[in-house]
């Protein structure tokens, strides 16, 4: 894979909490326009890696490049402004706000109107700007098929709908890279099929590069272009989905089968 086409480059990232190593010298690149999935057993370091990419955690060692720029020292809001959006494993919606208002929060960093223009809302450009953002939010609502709950209080919705609203808020950021932390968790089969369809459409029709953590191996195999496997904070495999799932170390990590002797070339897929 060429670094020239990589939207994200993770270089020898390690993360420690006291004496605990969450990640150890993990390197990989996500190419522009692909769906890249990170899998691994519970506690493998998947969410820790996403938190390092989004800026929630700062790596103990190594660096992270986005669009060729070293973003390692940047806070989450600065990375969001550059085009990195994310959802969370545990829902992070404002439960007391409407669906529409929750999604509008995702547009906040795109608003150019400052305090003075806000005071002159009805006479300046702030009103026009907000209406333009509202139109884009309505487009996202239509795309994710949540028109019927657009005015509902987010905290009153079913779990599957709340996951969809959180995805809408991340999409409202207009990211070039979207990080999805277990987007199908807790969903039934029909909800998973819908979410998988939305992710594919975001990738193919909206041009978003996707980095996804997901435990449902059927979904991972069906929609991922490439897959990386973490186990105890270390990368043990990376490559095409079918190659990775046939890898002896991956089978060992998931199924407890006896480790096989594997060369570094095989591990990199």
UniProtKB/TrEMBL annotation:
Output the InterPro entries linked to this UniProt entry.
Answer: AAA+_ATPase, ABC_AA/LPS_Transport, ABC_transporter-like_ATP-bd, BCA_ABC_TP_C, P-loop_NTPase
Q: Which GO terms describe its molecular function?
A: ATP binding
Domain named ABC transporter: residues: 8-257
The portions of this protein that span the membrane are: none
- Record's Pfam families? ABC_tran, BCA_ABC_TP_C
This protein's UniProt keywords: ATP-binding, Nucleotide-binding, Transport
Q: Which PROSITE patterns match?
A: ABC_TRANSPORTER_2
Recorded protein name is: ABC transporter ATP-binding protein
Q: What organism does the record attribute this protein to?
A: Roseomonas nitratireducens
